[in-house]
Amino acid sequence: MSPAEYLEFVRETAIYPRQYAVIYPSLGLVGEVGELANKVKKVIRDNHGDVRRFRNDLKAELGDCLWYYFALMDDLGKALPAEWADEWVRALPGGDNLIDKIIMVSHWASLLAYEPSDPDAADICIMDMEYVAYHLNTTLGDIADLNAAKLRSRQERGVLQGSGDNR
């Protein structure tokens, strides 16, 4: 799905009270980035930093981060950048490692929660998410597809609202 299609999907699955627009997805983004960082922390502790066995879990968490990012940008009325209208912008090889990029996503997500209209934070956050996807050997387009499939399944089973990764 394209970024524009994913945005429509996010709008269809955004079931939070509108009086909490902006604040709800801000907190959700920070929370999900924290979950992503926590999973990587456990990989460092228990698997010496080798993420290969945990790649699918990390992709699922990144998908949740992406959903909240899109919900936040939509609540702010921030349009997708023109270059993102039809296709996902892909990170170029190189740059920092996975752990560094997750720390950077955490930084920019926290800044967005504090100052949601900061255009630099919004742009850098999504690009760093793309770098995280790159280091997981995937793209944000694939992450969006995985996230949409997971949330559609929850929607069909009536468990879109609720708690826990495995609903």
Short description:
By secondary structure, this protein is an all-alpha fold. It has one domain (3-156).
Could you characterize what this model shows?
The protein has 167 residues and is an all-alpha fold. It has one domain. The protein has 6 helices and no strands. It has helices spanning 3-13, 23-47, 55-75, 98-114, 119-135, 140-156. Helix 4 packs antiparallel against helix 5. The longest helix has 25 residues, at 23-47. The chain is globular, with a radius of gyration of 15 Å. The mean pLDDT is 88.
Low-pLDDT sequence parts:
none
How many structural domains are formed by the residues? 1
**SSE pattern, N- to C-terminal:** HHHHHH
What is the terminal separation in angstroms? 24 Å
Q: In total, how many beta strands?
A: 0
Q: Structural class of the helices, strands and pairings? A: mainly alpha
Backbone CA Rg? 15 Å
Considering DSSP H and I runs of 4 or more, what fraction of the residues is helical? 55-70%
Nearest-integer average pLDDT: 88
In DSSP terms, counting alpha (H) and pi (I) runs of 4 or more, how many helices?
6
Query: Shape from CA axes?
Result: globular
- Assembly level: single chain
Strand content: under 5%
**How would a crystallographer describe the biggest sheet?**
none
Secondary structure layout:
Layout: H1 3-13, H2 23-47, H3 55-75, H4 98-114, H5 119-135, H6 140-156
Task: Based on the model shown, name its key terms.
single chain, 167 residues, mainly alpha
